[in-house]
Design brief:
The protein is an alpha/beta fold. The protein is built from 19 helices and 24 strands.
Length: 533
């Protein structure tokens, strides 16, 4: 290009980082650039959350006007701020390679507030608010606006417990705090296109558009299209709590889209993996799947008029493949009644080889792997409960010495067969006492390592539900906090959960196999006659 390319950008430090990055990449292909600063509505109005401003494109509108008026040649945006429908005449010229897409919690002091009944978390994002309240319903959310530096200062100046940021912004500005001051929220589904920089231009300027395409990253472009299709079809804009993430892994694309009620009480989710060359409609398909199941009503907190003959409630979020197991005349609503938070473990725990290790849940295995790589885990004998736990251990850590169906049977086996009467038990804060009690009573030394926290997130379930699905005694405990005893049928994943359910429900059905799919199959079987009639 012979002419100087005028690059329009907002004037915040992060926006300027993005614009200068685009400028450097374009200059690599032999052109000159000029940065033109243009402020936006979103930069000027800082006393309200974005979702209360009443318009979409609050961070892009002024740049679009400048582009259409010929004051700039291209505009550089954080792609997550761009409306799903571009102004007439404006086209997407390029996206640069995606940065980190995760959200991160910056803590005021430390993470001890998680053990309190309440906490105050700051964010101006409805998506982050809804996801946080879904996981921590007793916490309070307070609004937070401004550029990254301003928001960090507000966290310092207030008595909040923490504030949520996009990790990519902190990294790009070299403001990412120390590991003990930040918690990566890998469970929080990011906004569509989070971490992506987009370059817009006028479609009629074909020579410029072709030149800018040289900095386009195709994988990022593919993933962002899927995410934004999901957003577009749901018609959420930036005012609905919607998250979406597509990732290219080898020759496949893994996609996950979520939608929450604005108060964070309820959630709908779609996830699917498709071959890379056949994933073009993945986002649109996922959005339509949720719309067919009442997504609109969930977004606006309107009571769904369900025409199903039978309606059940799952105390664990179900995937697309899992819900498809149910008979078409059975409707299901699902929410997580318990959430898991991994503890930070000291390296000293696994510094030396450990002869005998015990796991009674997948959560403990995942929490351990969240702290250490498999190469750091030197275990001679691994004992576990459950086939799913065994499968995860053998995939990630190593061979299993022995497996049992429940903790009591495993404890009795260890008493009879251990030569070295000492075990390390990786567990959570809520667990049955059978195993350590039996071992201690039989002079087997137990070193308990609490590697995760199980937190109850109760929700009220309406009387219209004819059955409730439970996957652990903790799920039942959480359910009973906001609900009376004995609503409908309790469908349980195993006998341990069923034993607890029988104390509160008149009718209990136990799955034939301890899997979520088997629980769903038991629902089909139980309601078979009433559905057919």
């Amino acid at each position: 290009m012979e002419k100087i390319i005028r690059i329009g950008t907002r004037s915040s430090e992060l926006a300027l980082w993005q614009a200068n990055t685009v400028a450097q990449q374009l200059e690599h292909f032999g052109c000159e650039t000029e940065i033109v600063k243009i402020d936006s509505i979103g930069d000027v109005v800082l006393d309200k959350p974005l979702y209360e401003l009443g318009v979409t494109g609050v961070f892009t509108r002024n740049l679009d006007v400048a582009l259409l008026n010929g004051n700039i040649d291209i505009a550089v945006h954080s792609f997550k701020d761009v409306p799903t429908k571009l102004p007439e005449g404006v086209v997407q010229a390029a996206v640069i390679k995606r940065g980190d897409f995760n959200d991160v919690l910056i803590m005021k002091d430390d993470d001890e507030f998680f053990s309190n009944k309440t906490a105050t978390i700051a964010t101006g994002s409805l998506r982050r608010k809804a996801q946080w309240l879904y996981r921590y319903p007793n916490h309070k959310i307070t609004g937070l606006r401004g550029n990254v530096q301003t928001r960090l200062q507000k966290l310092d100046d207030n008595d909040w417990d923490g504030a949520i940021f996009a990790k990519v912004g902190l990294k790009r500005l070299k403001l990412m705090p120390k590991p003990d001051e930040a918690l990566i929220l890998d469970w929080m589904v990011p906004a569509p296109a989070q971490g992506v920089v987009m370059v817009a231009a006028l479609g009629e300027n074909t020579e410029l558009v072709e030149f800018v395409k040289q900095i386009n990253d195709e994988d990022t472009e593919t993933c962002v299209k899927i995410e934004r299709d999901f957003l577009r079809v749901l018609e959420g804009g930036c005012t609905a709590p919607i998250g979406a993430l597509a990732l290219v892994i080898k020759d496949e694309i893994k996609f996950k889209g979520v939608l929450f009620s604005p108060d964070g009480r309820n959630k709908m989710e779609f996830s699917k993996t498709s071959p890379k060359d056949n994933a073009w409609d993945l986002g649109e398909y996922g959005a339509k799947f949720l719309l067919e199941r009442g997504a609109k009503n969930l977004m606006y907190n309107v009571q769904e008029d369900i025409e199903k003959s039978t309606l059940i409630y799952s105390t664990k979020s179900l995937s697309h493949d899992q819900t498809s197991i149910l008979n078409s005349r059975i409707g299901v609503v699902s929410s997580d009644f318990i959430t898991i938070r991994n503890n930070r473990l000291k390296p000293l725990i696994v510094k030396k080889p450990i002869e005998n290790v015990v796991f009674t849940s997948q959560n403990a295995v995942e929490a351990l792997l969240n702290n250490f790589s498999p190469l750091e885990l030197d275990f001679s004998n691994i004992y576990c409960v459950g086939r799913r736990t065994k499968k995860l251990i053998e995939k990630k850590i190593g061979k299993i010495a022995h497996i049992e169906k429940d903790a009591e049977k495993l404890a009795n086996y260890l008493v009879e067969n251990l030569e070295n009467k000492k075990v390390t038990f990786f567990c959570g804060n809520i667990r049955r006492d059978d195993l350590p009690t039996i071992l201690n009573n039989n002079k087997v030394e137990v070193n308990e390592v609490e590697c995760y926290q199980t937190q109850l997130t109760p929700r009220s379930v309406e009387d219209k539900f004819k059955g409730v699905l439970f996957y652990s005694p903790s799920g039942i405990e959480s359910y009973l906090k906001d609900n009376s005893k004995g609503k409908g049928v309790a469908f349980c994943i195993g006998e341990t959960t069923a034993t607890e359910a029988r104390k509160h429900f008149e009718e209990v059905v136990v799955a034939k196999v301890s899997t979520v799919n088997s629980v769903l199959s038991s629902v089909n079987e139980h309601f078979k006659d009433s559905i057919e009639n």
